[in-house]
Amino acid sequence: MSDLDAFRAEVRGWLEANCPAEMREPIREEGDVCWGGRNWVFKNDAQKQWLEACAAKGYTVPDWPKAYGGAGLTPEQTKIFKQEMKRIHARSPLDSFGIWMLGPALLQFGTEEQKVQYLNPIARGEIRWCQGYSEPGSGSDLVSLQTFGEDKGDHWVVNGSKIWTSYADQADWIFCLVRTDKANKYQGITFMLFDMASKGVTTKPILLISGNSPFCETFFDDVEVPKTQYVGEINRGWDVAKYLLGHEREMISGGGAGGDMVSIGGAFAKSFGKNAAGELDDPILRAEMAAFDVDVFAYRAMGERFMDMWKTGRAHPASSNMMKYVGTELNKRRHELVMSGGGSEALEWDSEETKGGARARGWLRTKANSIEGGTSEVMLNVIAKRILDLPGA
Amino acid sequence: MPLYHNDDQAMLKDSVAPFVAEQAPVSHLRKLRDSADATGFSRDLWTQFTEMGLPGMLVPEAHGGLGMGHMEAGIVLEEIGRNLTPSPFLSTSVGAVAALAKAGGTQAGRWLPAIASGEAIIALAIDEGAKHRPDRIAATATRAGNGFRLDGKKSFVLHGHVADMSIVAAKTDGGITLFAVPKDAKGVTADPRRLVDSSLASHVTLDGVEVDADAVIGEVDAGGDILDALLAATRTGAAAEMVGVGQGAMDMTVTYLKERKQFGKLIGEFQGLQHRAAHLYGEMEVARATVMKAQQLLDEGNEGAKLMVSVAKAKAGRAANLAVREGVQMHGGIGMTDEYDIGLYMKRDRALAEYMGDVHYHIDQVARMNGY
Ligand SMILES: Cc1cc2nc3c(=O)[nH]c(=O)nc-3n(C[C@H](O)[C@H](O)[C@H](O)COP(=O)(O)OP(=O)(O)OC[C@H]3O[C@@H](n4cnc5c(N)ncnc54)[C@H](O)[C@@H]3O)c2cc1C
Ligand SMILES: Cc1cc2nc3c(=O)[nH]c(=O)nc-3n(C[C@H](O)[C@H](O)[C@H](O)COP(=O)(O)OP(=O)(O)OC[C@H]3O[C@@H](n4cnc5c(N)ncnc54)[C@H](O)[C@@H]3O)c2cc1C
Description:
The complex is a heterodimer.
Chain A: H1 3-18, H2 45-57, H3 75-87, H4 97-109, H5 112-123, E1 129-132, E2 148-151, E3 155-166, E4 173-179, E5 189-195, E6 201-206, E7 215-226, E8 230-231, H6 237-252, H7 264-272, H8 283-310, H9 319-342, H10 358-366, H11 376-387
Parallel strand pairs in A: 1-4
Antiparallel strand pairs in A: 2-3, 3-7, 4-5, 5-8, 6-7
Chain B: H1 7-23, H2 26-34, H3 43-51, H4 70-82, H5 89-103, H6 105-116, E1 122-125, E2 140-144, E3 147-158, E4 165-172, E5 175-182, E6 188-194, E7 200-212, E8 216-217, H7 223-257, E9 261-262, E10 265-266, H8 271-300, H9 305-330, H10 342-354, H11 359-369
Parallel strand pairs in B: 1-4
Antiparallel strand pairs in B: 2-3, 3-7, 4-5, 5-8, 6-7, 9-10
């Protein structure tokens, strides 16, 4: 038995022994996803038990070093770990911006002290982070951001506001882009970390078209941030911000989180009915779903190749932009087909049978996929410039 | 297995890519076309392929080949695609080898070594009409004397007029049977037609063709699985070649965007073109990954291969088609000229798209394999 086979057997045994049956059920609603944090209310004992078992083993962040709460797995081992999780339909024990975004940035740019201090609580699900990037006047053109940190010797005094801050009202800490030099556009931003409970931080929820309210306006009114709480160098936060965006795009594209990559036609055939030939009983919708399935299976292969290359440093550093563009456009298409397949039933907004309009709300939510974390148009700009090297882009 | 080329495969690519680019670039195709070449490919080039061991890549070592896999064959096919190289590699060294190796027996013993040594060119006589419908084969094989009598019509038989042997799929009493029909068999006529991409494909008529019992590839009535192996290999190979065609067209076009000036600017500065080029890049990358996945599953003998092969043929078909259409469009007027190569990419793509099932055929297959 090769080392990898032995590792697979070990993981399989461990999962069998430690993953509670409830944690092998599909995600049905928001509370099924465990985000952790100071204020987290576990949905049930199984969710808590599963998080704690994984955290103890380093399996919430399997490829992070052990010293920072991970399991120190190699890329091959990580792939096997994920395959084994998938095999038993295990839920992710912990999802968070700390894992997807801040963690990778700290691993790259943080000091040893910062890594120990911040990564371990992320891995254990103790501290939940939010992302303070976008501002009312700075969306795609993020580098134009205005939130300002005035230098007061041993601390900054931060004033300004952020917008579209996901889960700001539930997060414990924020990683935040703050201008610290007004004269220097790119080299005048500092990547700060501070507690959302700090004096002067307030949040105001925003209602989405889906009827849910997962994000906020976030206001900073003379917030004091110690001058130790920044990542990378002062005024060089843009480098950290961009690196982090690469990981955010990777996550949104489904590469990191593993999107819903199954056949849509296969799922619908059961509910939709078939004709005498055993085909989905609507030839044009069948054709569209089948064409979509081709793209889904193709993207699944792309996701595998991308991760294999990304984790071993073979991928073009800008390729997560391509993944995000293709993956999010695909997910939007899926939900258009889900709505078509569901017909008038899928229009219901709050009935019990539709689990409170889950399909309609889910469909509307996916429209944000190609906006959040950088819009599709911005992704195409980045591909044109950094990968295709087109002029003037 | 990670989904990128390992060191050996990367080395293979490093030797094959410059070889094909130097020996058989697009000008090689033009030369054959403009001299109204009647063979359909260059025998000298095939000799060079043989010197590199390429024809026998997939042939098992026991039969004198290199015993490599579809991932390796795909590396060669991508370069053939990128350079629009006319070659019997796909039908002979991929499709025929897959069928013969799967079947084993007399015909494998006879033909696999000849393929590996570069002596034999093999054609695949599967299709019968304008569209690929391998589940509706009408050509028949009836028992006669010690062997069989073949009757029917085949179409889109690449290299059919020069092949040393054609693999013919025919209906027998209890199923499909594949036959190895040698070049000189009586009653076979191959009528070669010049296609849009300058290749030659034959309409083959089988009129009371008598073959011995040992001409059967595998077992009588049991040709279905062998045909499936042939189709899976050939479709995956065609998909790999299309990735090469699409990539070649895309590279040419992106280069042109950086050279051509209009309105006082390089046209590559216009966002209207940038976004389309970037979208195309994404589609090509996805197609490449998909084709690799199909190759990997085939090489592993994984049962999921069949689905992925259809996905690969469909996805590569869509992506390469986008590449050649955008290629011609973004070249403006010059893209419409015979002198410029981009149009040749469009023609080659059209022929490959049709070969062994077009996009629509394979999308339909994907629906069926997923139970709808
Ligand atoms: C659900 C959701 C969650 C989010 N969560 C967070 C979060 O947690 N933290 C955070 O900081 N932000 C978050 N965001 C904000 C997100 O990053 C921004 O919405 C995004 O960057 C786009 O900025 P904008 O909304 O200002 O749109 P704009 O930049 O104003 O764009 C408007 C339109 O113009 C297009 N456009 C802009 N520039 C160009 C260009 N150069 N070329 C071509 N087209 C262009 C865009 O593609 C878009 O279609 C979230 C957004 C959503 C929808
Ligand atoms: C069959 C044929 C017959 C013709 N007959 C005639 C004729 O009888 N008389 C005559 O005078 N001309 C004729 N033309 C020429 C035709 O009008 C030009 O080919 C056309 O105007 C495009 O110019 P171009 O070829 O230089 O392409 P370019 O202008 O170089 O364009 C190359 C690519 O860049 C794109 N592009 C250019 N500028 C922009 C921009 N600002 N924003 C976004 N994209 C841009 C184009 O859309 C194209 O995709 C003919 C052309 C053809 C193909």
